[in-house]
Amino acid sequence: SQQGEEDPQALSIQEGENATMNCSYKTSINNLQWYRQNSGRGLVHLILIRSNEREKHSGRLRVTLDTSKKSSSLLITASRAADTASYFCATRIMDDKIIFGKGTRLHILP
Amino acid sequence: EPEVTQTPSHQVTQMGQEVILRCVPISNHLYFYWYRQILGQKVEFLVSFYNNEISEKSEIFDDQFSVERPDGSNFTLKIRSTKLEDSAMYFCASLPDRGDTQYFGPGTRLTVL
User: Residue B82 carries which DSSP code?
Assistant: First the structure.
């Protein structure tokens, strides 16, 4: 698998349900960030979690980081139609590169 | 709130032509990046720039690509002789310090005909 690989690739849930997306990576990281991208648009930063942090919250978002398993999860609670988008994790490794995963396409059903 | 801006929003060019994509990072930021995203694919790192020089570049960033910060505010990506496969969204990003959040611009859609 590649550095920063999300699963599932696509996720459809009913509005109001929680959505969980996962990201795995291969090398040691400095931090991990989650981004949202609406179709054909730019990248919106959601949350950054540093390698020495295990969990972080921001509104309806909860991110966890398990450096021993080299994985992170993004939980969106009480999903809304406006949450429909692609979600990417991006890892900053020890040099100046930031590597994006392929993303999870989230679709919220009315 | 300060934001990264990019111009143009859409650039159409003929194969073999040179293009310059422009970015204005947030004013107190020190690290600058270019990424590209081919339609339907993931965002790919191209190059990072700090202290007026390239700090990292990917294998995509070959001799056809160059970056410049000509005047302390603009950050440009030049593609010398465009190929069809250069068609993509190009995103600029900046951050104040290495461990911080990246702020992305809205992107420039480059179409090479």
Answer: -
Please, which residues have CB within 8 angstroms of residue A4's CB and are 6 or more apart in sequence? Answer: A23, A24, A25, A88, A89, A90, A91, A99, A100, A101
Of A50, A96, A100, the CB nearest to B43: A100
Q: In whole angstroms, give the CA distance from residue A42 to residue B30.
A: 21
Q: pLDDT tens, B29-66?
A: 989 999 999 988 889 999 999 988 999 899 999 999 99
Helices marked H in B11-62:
none
What parts of chain A have a pLDDT lower than 70? 1-4, 94-96
Q: Read off the pLDDT of residues B74-94 as tens digits, 9 standing for 90 and up.
A: 999 999 999 999 999 999 999
Phi, psi (rounded to 5 degrees) for B69: -125, 85
Q: Which residues pair with A83 in a beta bridge?
A: none
- List the single residue in B with minimal CA-CA distance to A95: B56
Distance CA A5, CA A9 (A): 9
The partner residue sitting opposite A100, judged by closest CB among B42, B100, B103, is: B42
Distances (CA, A) of A1 to A5, A26, A102, B18: 7, 8, 11, 35
Instruction: Pick the closest to residue A86 from A31, A46, A59 (CA basis).
Output: A46
> Does A99 contact chain B (CB < 8 Å)?
yes
Residues 6+ apart with CB under 8 A from B16: B81, B82
Question: Shortest CA distance to A92 belongs to which of A7, A23, A33, A26?
Answer: A33
